[in-house]
Amino acid sequence: MMIVFNPAAGARRRRRLLAALDLMRGLGMRPEVAETTHRGHATVLARDAAREGVRIIVAAGGDGTIAEVAAGISGSDSALGVLPLGTANVLALELGLPRAPARAAEVLAMGRTSLLHPGLARYGDGREVLFVQMLGAGFDAAVVHHLPGGLKRAIGKGAYVLQTIREMPRYRFTTLCAELDGRREEAASAIVTKGRLYAGRFLLAPGADPHEEGFHVALFRDAGVLAAMRYGAALPLGMLPRLRGVDLIRAGTVRLAGIGVPAQADGDAAGALPLEIGPAPRPMRIVVP
Ligand SMILES: Nc1ncnc2c1ncn2[C@@H]1O[C@H](COP(=O)(O)OP(=O)(O)OP(=O)(O)O)[C@@H](O)[C@H]1O
């Protein structure tokens, strides 16, 4: 087993990692730990470990770190493990992975796995971005693009709320075009999700399951500040999936286009449209409780 640790959020994360390591050592495990030094590094570390035949490669960080490690092991026989140390930890909530470091370590020690079907976004320039949870295009991506890293480290999840309020008056709402299995739709924003949850434990797509193939696409039809406020208020109340102006559609492939529309994948900035989303070439195994 190898642990890929993102130390970016400081001392608290390191303490939680050490607590997990303590338990593992108590069980006689001696996992190697590699620390990331920059964005994208987790993918390189995980890819090298997968080539060496490491059986379980653990992402110790948030959803961005998990996505980077998943990209590194994609196509290999290594399984993905998770020590949830991030801000939102959506995948951990989705899969019922414990947040307490000792309990998360126990799950890793047991090594029970299930199949995960990540999504792969392909851009016009040939770039590819793998995601395990979701890809958003439009307003939520603008929030992610402009979120100051320092603010997130200082106040955690509240940073997203603050940045959403800041973004409302300045985001230039444009129409994006979504092609869902070839069927054309229009929306102000879209979230292509593998899972049920969004931004923490808030319900977005009740019928979704990351263990299944395909995507659930949430289309936010209405543009403008008032609509964004309505969506933002409905989310924590669990009312978003039933809200007027929100449609949820299943699809196996998704094309998104729109001039200057930003994209985010698993909570990290991921360029701009146009892009095409389909399944990753191979599903991967993930360690689950
Ligand atoms: N050493 C580093 N310094 C700065 N940034 C890093 C470093 N290592 C990784 N990163 C970047 O930090 C991003 C965010 O980290 P991560 O996902 O672990 O935490 P988070 O954003 O707080 O969690 P969540 O996504 O659950 O909200 C990663 O996508 C990665 O690109």
TrEMBL record:
SMART domains: DAGKc. PROSITE patterns: DAGK. One of its GO terms (molecular function) is kinase activity. Keywords: ATP-binding, Kinase, Nucleotide-binding, Transferase. Signal peptide: none annotated. SUPFAM superfamilies: NAD kinase/diacylglycerol kinase-like. It holds the Pfam family DAGK_cat. InterPro entries: ATP-NAD_kinase_N (IPR017438), Diacylglycerol_kinase_cat_dom (IPR001206), Lipid_Phosphate_FormReg (IPR050187), NAD/diacylglycerol_kinase_sf (IPR016064), YegS/DAGK_C (IPR045540). Residues 1-127 form the DAGKc domain. This is Diacylglycerol kinase family lipid kinase. It comes from Roseomonas nitratireducens.
